[in-house]
Structure formats: structure tokens, C-alpha cells
Amino acid sequence: MTKQEYSMIEQYMISCMDDSAHDREHIYRVLYQALEIAKTEEDVNYDVLIAACLLHDIGRKEQFENPALCHAMVGGDKAWDFLVASGFAPDFAHQVKHCIQTHRYRKDNCPESLEAKILFDADKLDVTGAMGIARTLIYKGIVSQPIYSLLPDGTVSDGEGDEAPSFFQEYKYKLENLYSNFYTARARDLAKERQGAAADFYHCLYREASSSYEGGSQELGKWIS
Fold first, then answer.
1. Residue 58, number of CB atoms within 10 A of its CB
2. What is the pTM of this model?
3. Which candidate among 11, 102, 114, 201 keeps its CA 20 to 30 Å from the CA of 125?
4. What are the chain's domains?
5. From start to end of the chain, where are the E strands?
């Protein structure tokens, strides 16, 4: 890929990004993580990988405006249109489209090409560890969802089995279970290095929230007749 081609794709990506949890720095982290993973694999098409990493979240705005849409499917179509209109070969655009449309975790739409698997892993790495916690909290704030929910007895739920969305619910449903869902060995190793930081944060936050309610509600009861 030439510098001119890279710059053209990069500028289009920047024009599409409008989400602080999925901003351009997320894109660069995914790209750099993908290149780290690619070093341990053979026969990687770096042009396809780089283009797919840069463009993988360009459908986020459409999904945010209409949650019924899938940003991966929208983004793949947008990437195809942009690349073909910009003079890239249809076969190249098709490979990039496949990577983008399979980067989101869906059992019925799994990545097949090596480049798609690397993008999938690199994107999921950015939801692991401390970075994943930070990004999830930012997103929960954007959509006005709480850190935790309360159980019927007034205590703080740890998120397990919750239906109401919250950070704790997201941790139990998604973040805690990410670490075995990688295609490449390098991504699994990187994820394991980050796992402890995420677990420590969750457990500390849960203890702090729980202790506030346990001690505070008892103390309040002394003063309310």
C-alpha cells in the first residue's frame, strides 16, 4: 500500500468517526495490535489487513442513530463503495468488506480469511484489560446506562443474570468471557496478560459499591423513624 493510498483511507475513516468509545485512537490501537499479531502468522495480505483495520468501525454512526442496524454490515458496504469509487480493485474491496462484516462477535457470521481473523482478534483485544474497562464505562455514559443495578432487597447486584443494562451486567455478560474467544495464539497471549487488570477493577468496584449500601442503609435507619 502506498502512502497516498493509506492517507486516503485514513482520511475517510476520520470523517466517519463520531463516538468517543470508538474513536480514531481505538482504530489505531486495533491497527497496531493487528500488525503485532500478523508478525506471528504466515501469508498475511497486509494491504487488506491495514485497510480493514482502518475502516472496521465506519458504520458506527448509522448503528447509533438506528440500533436495528449492525455497524459491521453497514461498515462493510460503506467500505466497498468507498474503495471501488477510489479506484481499488473489486476483489480487494470484497476482501476488506468480508473482514469488516465479520469482525463483530456473531456465531452465524464468523471470520474466514486470515486477515478477518486477525482483525477480529485485534478488535476484541481492545475490549480486554484496563482499556476495555475504560471504553465500556465511556460507552455506558454515552447511552446513559448505570454502573450497577440494585436487587429487590436493596443490595448491589454483581451483574450476573441481570436483564437491565449496566456496567456490571456488561462485565458479567461479555467482558469476563472474552478471553477464550480468539483465533490466533498471539492474541490469546496478549489477552491473558490483560485479564487480571480487568478482573481486579471489577471486584474492587463491586466491593466499594456494595459496602456503601450495606453500611449506609443501616446507618440511615437509625435516623429515620
1. 25
2. 0.88
3. 11
4. 1-109 (1.10.3210.10), 127-225 (1.20.58.1910)
5. none
